Amino acid sequence: MKIQQIYTGCLAQGAYYIESHGEVAIIDPLREVQPYIDMATKSGAQIKYIFETHFHADFVSGHVTLSKKTGAPIVYGPNASTTFDAIIAEDHQEFMIGEITIVALHTPGHTMESTTYLLKDEDGKHHALFTGDTLFLGDVGRPDLAQKSASMTQEDLAGTLYHSLRNKIMPLSDELIIYPGHGAGSACGKNLSKETTGTLGDQKENNYALRADMTKEEFVKEVTSGLMPPPKYFPLNVKMNKEGYDDISDVITQGTHELNPQELELLANETGALVLDVRSQEEFAKGHIPQSIFIGIDGGFAPWVGALIGDVKQPIVLIIPEGREEETITRLSRVGFDNTLGYLKGGFESWVNAGREYDTVNQIEPTDLKRIILDETEIFDVRKPTEFISERLPQAKNASLEEINEHLNAFPSEGNFYLHCAGGYRSMIAASILKSRGIHNFIDVVGGFAKIKSTGFNVTDYVCPSTL
Fold first, then answer.
1. Which fold has domain 246-353?
2. Which residue from 29, 54, 124, 159 has the least number of CB within 10 angstroms?
3. Which pLDDT belongs to residue 464?
4. DSSP string over 201-234
């Protein structure tokens, strides 16, 4: 028996390859499916089943493409409904993979079709549980993503999840290996661990949601408190996972169309395409195409695209570091953004060499800011509210990046104000959005709060009325 976790850091997502005696099961595959096929081919094995734990909201799964390429059926748990052929498993239905068995355990609550998959080894012993978004390490799946489709409140779903955990998962052996669908950084939970595998016994001891003495009322209150609004692209990804999507190879072919500066400008004007610059924040600050939006490929790229752009049908043209064209388009497609129309050949340099106008972002080092800062200096911290409350500059106001467009009226129209995040990535995204909205009178603090703190600034960690 072979189990391999294929973890994608940018999505904080775990897919799984399971093999036994020439047969393979894939759980929650990414959209680019060729690596799974190659793994099976290298082992002389055949992909027999594709298991989906639920209709994912935060990424587009590769189930449809993988099924077309291999002939392997797609398996969902009870209550699932798709427009393509799929096996809708019954609770406790068993599937043989070589000499091992995978049992579908219906565990609704995150969504109503959510299903975990129990793996029994060659001797019939419970070996591992693939929990999807039902149980994470350190947390459980948020219960507010399926309300519209399930016609239930988040409290109803949380109560359902409580029973699923206690009736289906917690009675299992403490030695059972837990393979979750996500780790730290995912928007599908609040307090996910950086670890990507663990044991059920450890979760019973350390996961707040699995406390043995926890009542249903306590569980519902804790699980539903402190939830940030789900990113706008989530329902659109669910729709694609239910109804299907284009082959990623077609998306890449369209997206890798080369454009010169004139063609890029014309295409953006005619189609309303967003000019998305995925270079580093340092490069963007030094020069960028006016009105372009920065979301760097080397940060939390795809989730930020989904959260801030929202509409997966939005046409996009790209400014990309040389050699990373296919990677960028692939990562966009993972969250359903398939409408990339091309990229600027030669990168930003070709724009400059063509004599086109470009914009810059004013920046300041924390050491220089420290010399000029006053109590009345306007400083906006674009980190999450939880980060802001934990520790911040006393005069700072919180304008979290996720809700930056709701804060536009709070930024002063006269005089300079300062912008920072934790390390510089998010504040540069915010800077590009502000510039696209006609706000230019800000200065970005290089290195963000980490560098601010290391410079010896006075910081505070108590709650104050400076959150917008």
1. Oxidized Rhodanese; domain 1 (3.40.250)
2. 124
3. 45
4. HHHHHH-GGG-TT--HHHHHHHHHTTPPPPPTTH
